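User: quick one - fold this with beta-L-arabinofuranose bound?
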Amino acid sequence: MSNTQGFSRRQFVSSAISAAAISCLPNGRDLFTGTTAPKSGTREIAQQSSVVLTITPSWRDQGILNVTKSPYAKLRNVPVHAVTIGNGFWAQRREINVHKSIPSMGKLLEANGRVDNFRRLIGKSTAAQRGPVYSDSDVYKWTEAVAFALQSGERPELRTAADKIVKDIVAAQQPNGYLNTYYVGDHASQRMEPKAQQWGHELYNMGHFLQSATAYYRATGDRTLLDAGIHFVNDFLLPNFGPGPDKKPLFSGHPEMELALVELYRMTGDKRQLDLAGYLLRGDSRIHVQPRDYVYHFCGTPFTSRTHLEGHAVRAMYACCGATDYYLETGDPAYWKTLNVLWKDLVSSQMYVTGGVGARSDGEAFGDPYELPNARAYGESCAAIGNMMWNWRMLAATGEARFADLLERALYNGINSGMSLDGTLYCYRNPLAFDPSGGDKIRNEWYDTTCCPPNLERTLASLPGYFYSTSGDGIYLHLFDNSELDWHLENGVGLKVRQKTNYPWDGSVEISLAPAEPTEFTFFLRIPGWTDNAEVGVNGKALAGATPGQYLPIRRRWSAADVIRVQFNMTPQFLEANPQVVENNGRVAVQRGPLVYCLEQIDQPEGVTLKDVALNLGAKSSAQFQEEFHKDLLGGIILLRHAGAAYGESAEHNSLYFRYSAEPRKSRPVSLTFIPYYAWANRTATPMQVWTPISRA
Ligand code: FUB
Ligand code: ZN
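Assistant: Sure. Structure tokens for the protein plus beta-L-arabinofuranose:
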């Protein structure tokens, strides 16, 4: 294809069509008319569909969520490209993500036939379909991970690899818009039939398709995937399915489409897409769903009738994301009420201290309230990611720091544990205690159900988009790490913010602000809920009012060279669980800053087994932690040592039951060594536990 001045003929022709289409639209609808040129688009956009997309902001300036015009969003996203994460905690993980995890997962998806599933449909492969019915989604999540990586900068190898796959995916779409690699050939007659709607993941796959298409568009300006997604929604779903006697009813099966549809609506302004999300969230009374099914699938009954979290944890988290997205657009108070009830249920009786969710392996499900077993914990990586995604949306709705606290907890712990430090092995389950003698291999490079690995990859790749938000009053800082923001306030004034820190190892953060011109606005500084003290100063002058678990609003006329210094108290804390979490009675967990810690047997003195240790807690126990930075251990960590006791063998303790004795058990003093939970299972197979008994000696 000829390409003059970096501008292909196809792009030229199609953008000319688009410009014509734009100019026909009525004035006054600035979100969707396209009357203004994109502010900072660097490439011309190939417009292939007649659907006009919002250009306020332009494709490359849309964040993880484009809530720029969402009437019930208090906070707006900052695009991924606006935040550059410098050397430090997350840079290390993200480098490995783009250099190792994403490329190796791409190869594994190939090797396991997931990409051939698409090629078979276009005559490029003769291989049989491989993988479960939701396998398409894994290719889409991987593409989304690439797309987010591209939002942070050029990655030609990844772009080339993904472009090739994108081409095959789009070519596999049927003329009527339907796209699925399982419900073809012999399976085509089952397509969108009630049983397939319940178990077949057609909508789930296409929800992930839309998310990857959205991220890809925001990375490249290339609409190819997005137009295929619009084709599926507008030409296949909307005319055939939905409420009304002339349409077939829909059952979501695995929520995911809901949140994707709302995001699509944010780009197209096509209210039918938002309404379809609302319809899926309500359920269709023409389908008689058994209670056990609307529990497990977390759909099929009105979302607003829910009173607690139950059923499949990933489904529940994605449904909550979709419902929050729907609320952000509609402001429906019934949704808001339910979302708050469910969030309270989550934090009061359903969440692990790591931010992981889903206690039961059976049904990958939430358990009863306070049913939070440690060794048997399911805590699927995808569920923790769903938890983070949900809290991001709740934060956008409120600007309340409790949602950012939870997001940070899940991110640093229950999500971060999901990928090995070398980026090639993944946890599907993230238990809080582990004994390898049971034969369980906790980290694997591949799962036949490989939902978690590309989910972890897309999360790490999108991370810069979670650092800041804007509001009409100013800017919010949510996450701490060495980084540079290059963005603007909502009034258009350019703003750079640089963070210098060694967080999460160190609690001091230096934040330098540089607005393009002296401007009055509020800098909302997150004071994490895990600290018991934060000292804040602006240009050397102490500032009162920092309250853990809240944003500190600092309003002033800011000008270049203004500096905020903050020092969080990072003293390790012991946490207790509600007594109804029976497994944790008489035990404590250790947390330092945002990091939950655990014991691995390999770090304990010779001959000490985890099931026979306890912590000696005195009145000043926290101060008795010894902190040591080990540059070469587990990628560089602060480990914690604390006095404990190791019990010896005793005849009676080898029995199942024995008579109570008031005599303390015989023990010897030992020093117990804790490592951050996210870093567990990265050496040899060894027992691990998060909750440690307290010595009664
Ligand atoms: O069903 C699709 C995905 O596979 C779910 O989200 C995960 O829990 C796993 O079952
Ligand atoms: Zn998963």
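One thing worth noting: DSSP finds 17 helices and 26 strands in the chain.
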